[in-house]
Amino acid sequence: MEPNYDHTYSVASNPVYYENQNLHVLFAGKSQTLPLHQAGPKIYDYYLLHYVEGGSGIFRTEHRTYELGVGDCFLIHPGQLVSYVSDRDHPWQYRWAAFTGKESDELVLQAGFTPEQPVLSIAEGSVIPTSLGGMLEAFYANKESAHLTSLGYLYLIIGEAAERLSIYSRLPGAGSQVKRTVKQMIHFMSSQYAHPISIEQMCDSLGYNRAYLSRVFKQETGLSPVTYLLKLRIEKSRQLLRERPELSVEQVAASVGLTDALYFSRQFKRFCSQSPTSYRIKVTRQSDKSVH
Predict the structure, then answer these.
(1) For a surface tag, which of 55, 107, 122, 173 has the fewest beta carbons within 10 Å of its beta carbon?
(2) Alpha carbon distance 27, 64 (integer Å)
(3) Which domains does the chain have, with CATH numbers?
(4) Cα torsion at 237, 239, 240, 243 (round to 10°)?
(5) Is 84 helix (H, G, I), strand (E, B) or coil?
(6) What is the pTM of this model?
(7) pLDDT tens per residue, range 162-202
(8) Residue in 15, 16, 52, 14 with CA at minimum distance from that of residue 33
(9) Secretion signal: which residues (predicted)?
(10) By C-alpha distance, which of 54, 122, 123 is closest to 92?
């Protein structure tokens, strides 16, 4: 005896109308499909992401065919001829969301989705199912704020996809992974230098051993992370000493993440061969001469 599947279908549109916005979620929905339910072959003019909650089915693109089941996502790219069909015995149950906008192409690229790689298998504890459900609930509430809420959920989805798909892209070569890790370290220091961060905190944040990070960082930049961070702080302090004459040396030091003004002054002299006060006087005089 064949199992009986009750067909269900729910969809809700974004209450905010799309007018050339940079990024916009158009609608979200969920469905328990009937056996052999098929969509396409057809093309869409927006991105359409599906997450399979139950059952299985087949997704066909211009490039290949995928057999997908619980925990799989597939992203339909605009302008691509696709079709997807539910399994005869275990038709899939899925959630979906459609999005568009001028920044959508770049966002999808950052996530690692391409027409040749449109499929993602999620891990346990994924935010994707709850995010798609949150979009649908927000649209059902029919409030203007649903537009922003849906974007928040979309970024959570894209963030997880980027993390999962980057694992696959990193596997072939270790060299590219080292360069990527060093870029992450530089970005971390460039955005956090104003806070009293430590190299240990950065290593914990990136999830790597300190000895390993220090070694690869020095290989790529010629400097240890400690020296790089200190040089970065001194460079930022020089800028403040030049451009913000109303700040005291102590305030400049604190603004670049060094709470000990005496330590700051010693390190400044080490890198610049003069004290912060002397440097400020010198650049002020040079500025006055250039004006006259």
Answers:
(1) 173
(2) 27
(3) 8-170 (2.60.120.280), 173-292 (1.10.10.60)
(4) 160
(5) strand
(6) 0.61
(7) 887 764 444 344 456 777 788 888 888 888 888 888 888 88
(8) 52
(9) none
(10) 54
